[in-house]
Amino acid sequence: MKISIEKSDITQLEVDAIVNAANESLLGGGGVDGAIHRVAGPELLQECRKLNGCTTGEVKITKAYQLKAKHVIHTLGPIWKGGNYNEKQLLQNCYENCIRLAEKMKLESIAFPNISTGIYGFPKKEAAEIAIRTIQEEVKHLKSIHKIIFCVFDDENLSIYKKML
Ligand code: AR6
């Protein structure tokens, strides 16, 4: 099992699945979601239209079209509202549901962006703690997946992850 940190654009990673930090419509948006849809092309949006959206902490999988990855696992992270609205548990659910779906689909590699830490305003340090703790717990049950990438995009998340992992 290899767990690594990579500072890169997630749309450029050649893995079985990249995770998208989407919104509840699953019809694209800004941030990493916008980047993924731009690179994947219009067929991704077409497939997403059939999915009936997503609720917080849940996941839906699609093909990845023009991306280098094979699949996109779309998840809806919680919007940070100060910490008393179950945000931490909901963020944990995102990581758990993504990795469990990837394992169920017998995928071997997966890359996560820093879900909710951009437009949705989740504090980066708390989010990283949840991401790392959740994945380290899940790893114990994995057979198929043997490569997990925390794909960071900004220097603040890079230094937080480097310190924690
Ligand atoms: N590759 C990897 N990480 C990226 C990329 C990229 N190309 N672009 C941004 N990030 P955000 P959220 C990082 O805002 O907070 C969308 O409009 C970014 O630096 O993309 O979950 C959706 O449609 C940050 O660390 O997602 C929703 O409406 C992380 O990805 C809303 O934003 C997440 O930032 C979701 O907000």
From TrEMBL:
InterPro entries: Macro_dom, Macro_dom-like. Transmembrane segments: none annotated. Residues 1-165 form the Macro domain. It holds the Pfam family Macro. It comes from the Bacteria. PANTHER family: GANGLIOSIDE INDUCED DIFFERENTIATION ASSOCIATED PROTEIN 2-RELATED, MACRO DOMAIN-CONTAINING PROTEIN. This is O-acetyl-ADP-ribose deacetylase.
